[in-house]
């Protein structure tokens, strides 16, 4: 009895749908494994708090300049390109450093964002990495802070920062004054946000003169004043840190620090206040932060006032390096700290109990280097502070040391299970390439694996379950071991007997031996490109050149690719490599934005006549008229949105703001043309007409959300995809360029007899597919960090700070190339006579062809356990690649349904072979009959997919 028909493939025991479902569940479950191995919360409870008995300062003022870089505050002449810029941009803070305070660098940790930075400064602990599963809520983690240990804290600033310290503290311990979120407008001068804070501080002290209760609170000991100055961060995002706006914001912060010091000292009538000025993170040259670049991790730290030492002469060897030479402070001692050390310093200054979760080390406990506390405190006081610091660390160790053992006890076992699970997944997926159960029985050797050995994985899984039950392990552990057991069981049961067959083994080994060098080089190119894509674009460009050259050398066939002595469409690849070489830190350029709009318009103008003539020959004049209206609307919208984008960009650059009417127009021009291709349900579509409609549908995204060359990138990326389709079709069926149809619509089988035979060309298809996956993701940004993406285009739609809305727009722009890739994959599947989802697994499985493809989709997840940090990000991206690709493949099949297949390869080759637009149109008309024929050549009549 023959096997049942599954997924449209008669006589097979293998369902692609079942494989996709199992793969979906497998990758979702194993994404959680990284949390079980590494993402354990550092926040613990039950520790005893300690404090120093004596303190010099009665109160503390903490001022945080959000997004302030150390070099731009302390350098001499930090803004040389700005005409008339002062040599010292912050004279008050400079005078403190030189005459009455201590200074240095506060080294932050990634992620260099506002919330983690403030948690480190005020809580003395580094951000709980487990919070990524809870979202950036106000206070998803319960931790102690300096504010919570104070008598009263008065905080002023951003609504994004203040609440998380107020809501987790003792009731009524922390008072907050914050402006509304709508005030964080990127089109306005952000300096006003900082002056708002100063105005509230002035109002507080004015009110205290008539409010006895408030006056009594202010005169208590251990009071903390917290000023969060967000202006620098907002200004840096809008205008970048080397701009005149950023310089003026630093000057404003310097004036606010001076005025605050005067207010506090005048109100209390003494000099018993300690002051600390620092920043939560720095900022990159493109106005972003979040990664570990030194510009983001080096922030200034200046302390002065009661209990703080004055300036000291520099030591031998010097405390300075190349970074601090431009400061002009080499004669003074520089004392660097870790960001979490600031909480310990503040607690020691005012004598509050130290935050119980603090991991900071008081700078003064190092006997070989001076700290920040005043020497007049005496050795006893310094020794007491050091002793308290040691007791705090010991208390955490007392609670934590047993937890660390428990948290890492299963790590080796879990990593082993994950490794075997991914190897097993690849082996299991390979069964859908070779399909051993579909082969004649005489080809499959009867070995011991048909007996007890195949149950070995199940026995191991059962033993693990017993151990997990005894240890009361998490439920996720049972799933982790179940998947590899099933994968290995199926492979041993089906695959091992199959490969043990003499005839099969000879052919497989022979195919591998003949092409071993090509295979190794191809895999090396693939893995090398994968690594390069996680780093800046210039290195990616080198990888593109190298990979393209290697692929051409390995798989090129000059006789098949000779389209008039030169395949001119390859020029698009060279142009795209040039675009990839553009530095990541590029600035907004309205010329390139407009050029991208013109590129989209040109595509619509020059390709439309050819596409419509093809539609007319296939469906008639009525279909042409309907599609002509659609294309005309798209062309008009491209012109309007290009003009609106240029206007919005210039308006923001010239600080004229963005009127509400302009914002509404931008949203309308973004949404309406973008959704048109998905709601235009015309039954009269050819492959080329629908492809053109989708390409133009992405024009609003890549014009309005563009900062420079993104529009040009997408046009060329789409052209490269179309050329790839033509290349693959011609290499498999070279007859399409010389015959009106193929003989029988079948490919030339390799190996015969329905058995597996290795084809080195299959490596090429998988390699190019993954190349386009990575190029689409990394082509317009450097995803070594999300901070490499620009916020300027988002201000044209959302001028007020709204992280989730802004991230949604950036994500839409990021995913747009993949939607185009999914559409091309659907067309390529049909052009190569493959069933849906074939290219997802890089294994064409059509029953009429005996070629099988090398599975190259899952090795990306191996080797992801090298280190926490960036490797966790890479692990997520690689694990989600399968799920994302499956979704994109399904989307492409849906978007390209109900289209008539045409000889698109003749149109592309003919278009690339002519030098003028008129010649290209004439060529398209002349080849009309050939273009309208069925792609496989089975029939000259059009056929719906």
From TrEMBL:
It is found in: Endoplasmic reticulum membrane. Pathway: Glycolipid biosynthesis; glycosylphosphatidylinositol-anchor biosynthesis. Its EC number is 2.-.-.-. The chain crosses the membrane at residues 20-39, 413-434, 454-470, 477-496, 516-537, 660-679, 691-708, 765-790, 810-832, 874-896. InterPro entries: Alkaline_phosphatase_core_sf, GPI_EtnP_transferase_1, GPI_EtnP_transferase_1_C, Phosphodiest/P_Trfase, PIGN_N. Keywords: Cell wall biogenesis/degradation, Endoplasmic reticulum, Glycoprotein, GPI-anchor biosynthesis, Membrane, Transferase, Transmembrane, Transmembrane helix. PANTHER family: GPI ETHANOLAMINE PHOSPHATE TRANSFERASE 1, PHOSPHATIDYLINOSITOL GLYCAN, CLASS N. This is GPI ethanolamine phosphate transferase 1. It comes from Leucocoprinus birnbaumii.
């Amino acid at each position: 009895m023959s096997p049942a028909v599954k997924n449209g493939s008669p006589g097979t025991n293998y369902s692609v749908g079942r494989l996709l479902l199992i793969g979906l569940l497998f990758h979702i479950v194993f994404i959680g494994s990284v949390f079980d191995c590494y993402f354990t919360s550092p926040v613990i409870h039950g520790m005893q708090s300690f404090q120093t008995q004596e303190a010099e300062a009665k109160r503390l003022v903490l001022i945080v300049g959000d997004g302030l870089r150390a070099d731009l505050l302390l350098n001499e002449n930090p803004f040389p390109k700005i005409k008339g810029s002062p040599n010292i941009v912050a004279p008050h803070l400079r005078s403190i450093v030189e005459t009455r305070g201590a200074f240095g660098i506060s080294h932050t940790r990634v992620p260099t964002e506002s919330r983690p930075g403030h948690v480190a400064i005020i809580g003395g602990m580094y951000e709980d990495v487990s919070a990524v599963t809870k979202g950036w809520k106000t206070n998803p983690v319960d931790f102690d802070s300096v504010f919570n240990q104070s008598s009263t804290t008065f905080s002023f600033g951003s609504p994004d920062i203040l609440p998380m310290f107020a809501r987790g503290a003792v009731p009524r311990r922390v008072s907050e004054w914050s402006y509304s979120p709508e005030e964080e407008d990127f089109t306005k001068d952000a300096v006003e946000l900082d002056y708002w804070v100063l105005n509230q501080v002035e109002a507080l002290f004015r009110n205290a003169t008539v409010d006895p209760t408030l006056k009594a609170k202010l005169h208590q000991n251990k009071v903390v004043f917290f000023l969060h100055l967000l202006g620098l961060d907002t200004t840096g995002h809008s205008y970048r840190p080397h701009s005149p706006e950023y310089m003026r914001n630093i000057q404003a912060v310097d004036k606010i620090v001076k005025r605050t010091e005067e207010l506090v000292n005048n109100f209390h009538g003494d000099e018993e206040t300690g002051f600390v000025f620092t920043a939560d993170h720095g900022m990159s040259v493109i106005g972003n932060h979040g990664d570990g670049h030194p510009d983001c991790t080096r922030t200034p730290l200046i302390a002065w006032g009661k209990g703080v030492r004055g300036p000291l002469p520099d030591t031998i060897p010097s405390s300075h390096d190349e970074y601090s030479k431009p400061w002009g402070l080499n004669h003074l001692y520089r004392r660097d700290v870790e960001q979490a050390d600031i909480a310990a310093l503040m607690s020691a200054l005012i004598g509050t109990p130290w935050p119980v979760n603090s991991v900071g080390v008081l700078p003064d406990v190092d006997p070989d280097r001076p700290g920040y506390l005043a020497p007049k405190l005496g050795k006893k006081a310094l020794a007491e502070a050091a002793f308290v610091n040691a007791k705090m660390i010991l208390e955490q160790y007392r609670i934590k040391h047993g937890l660390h053992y428990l948290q890492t006890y299963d790590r080796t076992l879990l990593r082993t299970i994950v490794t075997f699970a991914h190897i097993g997944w690849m082996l299991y997926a390979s069964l859908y390439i070779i399909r051993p159960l579909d082969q004649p029985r005489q080809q499959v050797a009867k070995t011991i694996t048909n007996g007890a050995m195949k149950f070995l994985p199940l026995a191991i899984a059962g033993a693990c379950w017993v151990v997990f039950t005894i240890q009361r392990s998490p439920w996720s552990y049972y799933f982790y071991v179940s998947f590899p057991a099933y994968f290995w069981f199926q492979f041993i049961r089906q695959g091992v007997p199959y490969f043990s067959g003499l005839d099969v083994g000879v052919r497989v080994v022979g195919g591998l031996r003949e092409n071993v060098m090509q295979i190794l080089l191809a895999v090396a190119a693939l893995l090398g490109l994968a690594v390069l894509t996680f780093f800046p674009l210039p290195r990616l460009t080198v990888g593109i050149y190298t990979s393209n050259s290697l692929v051409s050398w390995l798989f090129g066939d000059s006789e098949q690719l000779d389209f008039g002595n030169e395949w001119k469409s390859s020029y698009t690849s060279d142009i795209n490599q040039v675009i990839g070489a553009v530095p990541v830190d590029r600035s907004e350029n309205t010329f390139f934005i407009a050029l991208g709009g013109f590129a989209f318009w040109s595509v619509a103008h020059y390709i439309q006549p050819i596409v419509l003539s093809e539609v007319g020959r296939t469906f008639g004049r009525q279909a042409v008229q309907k599609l002509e209206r659609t294309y005309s609307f798209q062309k008009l919208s491209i012109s309007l949105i290009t003009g609106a984008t240029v206007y919005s960009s210039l308006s923001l650059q010239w600080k004229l703001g963005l009127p509400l009417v302009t914002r509404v127009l931008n949203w309308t021009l973004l949404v309406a043309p973008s959704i048109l291709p998905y709601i235009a349900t015309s039954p009269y579509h050819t492959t080329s007409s629908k492809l053109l409609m989708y390409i133009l549908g992405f024009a609003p995204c890549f014009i309005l959300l563009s900062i420079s060359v993104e529009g040009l990138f997408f046009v060329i990326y789409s052209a490269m995809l179309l050329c790839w389709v033509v290349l693959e079709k011609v290499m498999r069926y070279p007859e399409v360029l010389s015959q009106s149809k193929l003989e029988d619509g079948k490919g030339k089988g390799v190996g015969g007899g329905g058995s597996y035979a290795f084809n080195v060309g299959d490596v090429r298809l998988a390699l190019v597919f993954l190349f386009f996956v990575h190029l689409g993701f990394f082509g317009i940004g450097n995803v070594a960090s999300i901070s490499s993406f620009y916020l300027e285009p988002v201000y044209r739609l959302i001028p007020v700070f709204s992280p989730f809305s802004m991230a949604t727009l950036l994500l839409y722009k990021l995913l747009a190339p993949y939607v185009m890739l999914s559409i091309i994959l659907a067309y390529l599947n049909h052009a190569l006579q493959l069933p849906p989802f074939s290219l997802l697994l890089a294994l064409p499985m059509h029953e009429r062809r005996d070629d099988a493809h090398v599975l190259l989709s899952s090795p990306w997840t191996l080797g992801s356990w090298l280190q926490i940090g960036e490797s966790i990000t890479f692990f997520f991206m690689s694990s989600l690649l399968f799920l994302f690709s499956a979704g994109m493949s399904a989307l492409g099949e849906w978007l390209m349904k109900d289209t008539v297949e045409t000889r698109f390869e003749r149109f592309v080759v003919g278009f690339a072979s002519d030098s003028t637009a008129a010649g290209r149109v004439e060529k398209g008309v002349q080849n009309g009959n050939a273009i309208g024929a069925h792609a496989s050549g089975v029939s000259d009549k059009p056929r719906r997919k």
